Amino acid sequence: MTLLAVGINYNTAPVAVRERLAFPAEILENTLKNLWNIQEISEAAILSTCNRTEFYYQAENDDKTPLVNWIADTKHINPGEFAPYLYSYTDNQSIRHMFRVACGLDSMILGEPQILGQMKTAYHAAYQAGTLGRNLSKLFQHTFSAAKKVRTDTAIGSSPVSIAFAAVQLAQQIFEKLSEQTALLIGAGETIELTARHLHQQGIGRIIIANRTYDKAHSLAMQFNGYAIALSELPNHLPEADIVVSSTASQLPILGKGRVESAIKKRKHKPMFMVDLAVPRDIEAEVEQLRDVYLYTIDDLQNTVNQNMDSRRRAAEQAEEIIDAQVEHFLFWLRSQGAQETIRDYRTQALLTRDEALEKALAQLNNGAPAEEVLQRLAHTLTNKLIHTPCAQLRDAGANERHDLIAASREIFKLR
User: Fold this and answer.
1) CA-CA to 159 of 20 to 30 Å: which in 135, 187, 339, 399?
2) What's the rounded Cα separation, in Å, for the pair 73 and 134?
3) In a domain, 315, yes or no
4) pTM of the shown model
5) Residue 320 lies inside a defined structural domain of this protein
């Protein structure tokens, strides 16, 4: 049997292809059951995210043709439209690939943590669908352990590598408790949405979103239990803000020194943290001169992000070493499974021999035979029966000059 990992990701396929091979969570269980019905496949799981779709499965051999045909039939796509974008790994390399994916080493943003949760979702879906067997189930458990070890033993995820996240982390350094702060976000684009999401996840007390188009601000604010205002209302709400993050497409500054100074006075000089992520700038540079205002620009944060990316790359090198060791651990377990059937049969045989000898001993006791005599006979019988076959095989090995079997026997029985 062969373990395989086959898929497409942001490196190998454009979004137009990736979206056609995506499997929404609500159909994943039935999809897995259909995949498992392929005769050549004995175990299967599917990881489907916006950046990748991957199939982890155990099959009779490394031929991925049955999977490609199944994808084509399931998605009603000609194989030629997606097969050239597929990558595939087998056995050792498939194990390593799963570990790297779960650790964020194969992600668009190096070390991003969300992929581990998505990997766990893939595992639970396969578990619910009943498409996991012993090997793939154990591989997922090893994958989660490897990812945890990488997160614990390296700095792969400790440094922010997005501007929005860097801004939020900086705010956490300035304010002891974000739960007691109010954040005013100016704009309603992707950067502001990401900032709002990070603030919400970190337990920000209150979010106000200001935008030229009120409906856009309202739609975004609703996602994070926030409050929307029109840009024209900004002067009235600025004094409420402990944190201000601005990212608009305005060609002129939205906040000038005078307006911020007025807000600071109304706040009785309570500190205000401001981040200008816009180009051109939304906040006049002179605002930095004001006391009790901490103003950062996109360049300030970009330097932090660049330094953090270097830190993550160094951590990734450590992570690869950890993954090497974890792959070997799993391969050791996998190889040991080949002996399990022999161990099970040998144990069954020994138990049958024991039961037969014990049954005779009990019968002798019931017939009044002395206990000491019965015990000696039981020990003698058991010893002879347990060593008879190995001794006979060793004699044959000696006669046939099978020195390898004799050496192996000495190792198995730990004979000096």
Assistant:
1) 187
2) 28
3) no
4) 0.64
5) no
